[in-house]
Write a structure and sequence with these properties.
Pfam families: Mpv17_PMP22. It is a multi-pass membrane protein. Belongs to the peroxisomal membrane protein PXMP2/4 family. Keywords: Membrane, Transmembrane, Transmembrane helix. InterPro entries: Mpv17_PMP22. The chain folds into two domains: 183 residues, no CATH class; 38 residues. It is globular. Helix content is 82%, strand content 0%. The longest helix is centred in the C-terminal third of the chain and has 36 residues. Helix 3 packs across helix 7. By secondary structure, the chain is mostly helical. The chain has nine helices and no strands. The termini are far apart.
């Protein structure tokens, strides 16, 4: 029943239905992040700022962007889908990520609205390449045009959770995000130190693997 209502709304009011759903799901991702972080008090101002950016830019941009892609590369053939994916990930994805970091910082009144962008944009974009190409492939192949922004909103629910974590607690990498999920009480500095220690242990293990055979050969030669 709900699915039928949503489908009918998307057909009759495609812009309103798609953009509203996208913004609500994106803001919901921020709420999920705060619940995982086990905050004593919900930061409703941050959720409001995320919703403003999601509705004013993200939802609107994706609504018209997906239609522009379909007009330029119509159909679901392999070549057309590949072109849409390539443009989406090389242009739209970096732009949307940049607007999120700078837009939320601007609404919070930060003096340097590019601080988070400089520190976390590249890592975030690389992480997105492990997620969005697969979601957009399904979007371009399976979804009708009037539902594509809404489908992106559903996918963006999880992505927004990651983005909000990266902006407030993370560094844009998936590894730190997973470490946070496993133990939300850890600070970013503690997670970085743990990753550095793991890296040192792996490096030591690789050195041992190289040195140990040489040491045994040396002992054998000496004994003979």
């Amino acid at each position: 029943m709900r699915r039928a209502v949503l489908k009918e709304a998307a057909k009759r009011f495609p812009w309103l239905a798609n953009v509203t759903l996208y913004g609500c799901l994106f803001a919901g991702g921020d709420l999920v992040h705060q619940l995982i972080a086990q905050k004593e008090h919900m930061d409703w101002k941050h959720t409001r700022n995320v919703a403003i950016v999601a509705i004013s830019f993200q939802g609107n941009f994706n609504y018209f962007w997906l239609r522009a892609l379909e007009r330029r590369f119509p159909g679901k053939s392999a070549g057309m889908v590949f072109r849409k994916l390539l443009l989406d990930q090389s242009f739209a994805s970096p732009l949307a990520t940049s607007v999120f970091y700078t837009g939320v910082s601007f609404l919070e009144g930060k003096e340097d609205v590019f601080e988070d962008w400089r520190e976390k944009f590249f890592n975030t974009w690389k992480t997105g390449l492990m997620y969005w190409p697969f979601m957009q492939f399904l979007n371009f192949v399976l979804m009708p045009l009037y539902m594509r922004t809404a489908f992106m909103g559903c996918c963006a629910f999880l992505w927004a959770t990651f983005l909000c974590f990266s902006r407030q607690n993370g560094d844009g990498t998936a590894g730190v995000a997973f470490a946070f999920i496993m133990d939300p009480r850890k600070t970013l500095e503690e997670m970085r130190e743990a990753r550095e220690e793991e890296g040192m242990e792996e490096e030591a293990a690789s050195v041992i693997q190289v040195v140990e055979p040489w040491r045994k050969d040396r002992e054998f030669v000496t004994s003979t």
